[in-house]
Specification:
410 residues, alpha/beta, Aspartate Aminotransferase, domain 1, 2 domains, 7-stranded mixed beta sheet, 13 strands, globular
Length: 410
């Protein structure tokens, strides 16, 4: 059985351990919620301050050129491409994940005349379903079809324009086989669109090797770009000339500073830009992406699997009989970098954990969700977190009235 000396030895041998000091984590907190909001890199505050006081304060409007504000969507997108197995010209940073999803879903249906169905699974991340429903409501005859994940391949027919799936499920962490599902969609003439929000920086991704068509993802989870960080979108090179964005803003124009009255789509993936890039948010995101690029990704993903496996093993051995049921895949090969357990009193249990300095989150109706970000979570953190979890459950301290009051964000 693993003991505390074992986990300390694991931390001592961890080549990624020095990255922990690159993050401004509060003293005494075990932060297991990087799958929802990444921790603050220490360099971010100074970078944002420089953007505000130097580039904006002194450089003023000249910083669009001198500090290359105008090139941030392509520059940072190119860096993210290096994390995801894409070419630099296939990814741009823009807008939010939801807005990018809207743009790509609408474009995908337009690129498949005669096909009107967006195929997805029930229980997908809610905003993905809501955006898909909104797109379908705008296009005559379009609809959203949901089928259980085990039935998706069989449901792809000549009515399906695009298959929209989240690569790593937000609640359970279950991970699709990206190459296999992509091939299945394409074999029936549909486009494949992946939501990488719980994948980018968390699990190995090679979009081009998988033959992916389209993808979107956020910058504020494992990329540590800060709350509401700009998102990114990917369009495979082979589709860029045919796809049309429904949001024809000036930054997607072929010549935005010619100020012509009529829209002409920009070249390549640039046509999926829309409004002015949020420069301050871009600056924060770039710090997080640069930090991720420094890490050895083979070591990163191996540690992710090891942390999650250790957590599952310890919870099931130390918290047996205390009401927890594993809700994530046990096999690390089909699981992301977070682990979920179901508990009948999941919300107050999580609030009690947070009060004790172990920060995860809750997802209705009964899921305790724990994220393991290898750059700043260590093996002893896992050990300590399970000790606190066992005590909270065994003592039933979670049943205090203050832990039952629901906050707006869970």
């Amino acid at each position: 059985m693993t003991d505390v000396q074992d986990v300390r030895r694991m931390d001592a041998q961890d080549t990624l351990a020095p990255f922990r000091d690159r993050f401004a984590l509060p003293e005494g907190v075990i932060y297991l919620d990087g799958n929802s909001l990444g921790a603050l890199p220490r360099a971010t505050a100074a970078r944002v301050a420089d953007t505000v006081t130097s580039e904006w304060g002194r450089g003023l409007i000249g910083s669009w050129n001198d500090a290359d504000w105008i090139g941030a969507p392509q520059r940072i997108g190119g860096k993210i491409a290096g994390l995801l197995g894409a070419e630099p010209h296939e990814i741009v940073v823009a807008d939010s994940t939801s807005v990018n999803l809207f743009k790509l879903l609408h474009a995908a249906i337009g690129a498949r005349p005669g096909r009107t169905v967006i195929l997805t699974e029930p229980g997908n991340f809610p905003t993905d379903l809501y955006v898909a429903q909104g797109v379908a409501a705008m296009i005559p005859g379009a609809s959203v079809r949901t089928v259980a994940r085990e039935d998706i391949v069989a449901a792809i027919d000549d009515h399906v324009a695009v298959v929209m799936l989240t690569h790593v499920h937000y609640k359970t962490g279950a991970m699709f086989d990206m190459p296999a599902m992509t091939r299945a969609a394409q074999a029936e003439g549909a486009l494949m669109l992946w939501d990488l929000s719980h994948s980018a920086g968390a699990v190995p991704i090679d979009l081009n090797a998988a033959g992916a068509d389209l993808a979107i993802g956020c910058g504020y989870k494992y990329l540590n770009g800060g709350p509401g960080a700009p998102a990114f979108l990917y369009v495979a090179d082979r589709h860029q000339a045919e796809l049309r964005s429904p949001l024809t803003g000036w930054m997607g124009h072929a010549a935005p500073f010619d100020f012509g009255d009529d829209y002409a789509a920009g070249a390549g993936v640039n046509r999926f830009l829309c409004g002015t890039p949020p420069v301050i948010g871009m600056a924060a995101l770039e710090v997080g992406v640069d930090l991720m690029l420094e890490a050895d990704r083979t070591a990163l993903f191996a540690k992710s699997r090891a942390l999650c496996d250790l957590f599952v093993d310890l919870v099931e051995s130390q918290c047996a009989g205390l009401g927890l049921t594993l809700a994530s895949p046990r096999d690390a090969r089909v699981r992301g970098s977070h682990v979920s357990f179901a508990h009948d009193h999941g919300y107050p249990v999580m609030q009690a954990l947070i009060a004790r300095g172990v920060v995860g989150d809750f997802r209705a109706p009964d899921i305790l969700r724990f994220g393991f970000t290898p750059l700043y979570v260590g093996y002893e953190d896992v050990w300590r977190a399970v000790e606190v979890l066992r005590d909270v459950l065994a003592s039933e301290s979670w049943d205090a009235p203050e832990f039952h009051a629901r906050s707006a964000v869970t």
